[in-house]
Amino acid sequence: MFLWAGSKGAQGPSQGRRTIYQKIWEYDSLDKKKTVTALKAGEDRAILLGLVMILCSIMIYFILGITIVRSYSDSVWTEESSCSVINSTIIGEINCTYSCGSDCRKTSKYPCLQVFVSLNTSGKTVRLLLNEEMHNMNPDCFYVPKCQKDLVTMHTVIINIIGHLRLHPQFCCYYDPAERQDSVLLTQLYSHTTVLQSLFWPTIIFFGDLFKEER
Question: Could you tell me which residues come within 8 angstroms of residue 69 by beta carbon, excluding any fewer than 6 positions away?
Fold first, then answer.
């Protein structure tokens, strides 16, 4: 009996060491699994974030394409020249409507300022407009102020424009080289530089995230 007990006691330390090593190995394996799982989850989140950024850049491209880029490509006033003011006159008042609340519209009037300039490139006398938007709103008026109840404020704006044109009778302007339009613009609604600047950051985001996904 004592010999059997002694033999059993002699095997105890060896089994204890194996048990300790096994527990350490199991702990290391579990820790590695947790690390791999955490890394995989982090990679999945990074990939998802990259895909979201690419999708956002595509949406921005779409929005810019139907607004800024389309307006720029449709504009015919592409060439720059210099213009000299010949005459600036308020030719009358144009009826307009403004909002006075929910489901409420009232009528008012705004002064129509007509400006004629000499296009130095050709020497022709043409009508001057502020930008493409004014051409769409009323091609006879240089500037169409926001319609409002206060007529004095709108007249004051137009008078200030007349005074500015008298102080600066020569300036850069934009004309249609194909002569499809008989008017020139003081400023472009969206210039070439504006289009490039608006497309810069979406392009950086798109290609930056695209390269990350490929790696």
Answer: 195, 199
What pLDDT digit, counting tens, does each position of 111-131 carry? 999 999 999 989 999 999 999
Report the distance separating Cα 98 and Cα 81, nearest Å. Answer: 36
Q: Which two tokens stand for residue 47?
A: 């990939």
Helix, strand and coil content of the chain, in percent to the nearest 5, comes to 55, 25, 20
Decide if 85 contacts 115 (C-beta within 8 A): yes
Which residues have a Cβ under 8 Å from the Cβ of 62 and sit 6 or more positions away?
none
What's the one-letter identity of residue 4?
A: W
Question: In a 10 Å sphere around its CB, with 0-12 CB exposed, 13-18 middle and 19+ buried, how is residue 116 labelled?
Answer: middle
Please name the residue that has the structure tokens 């607004």: 67
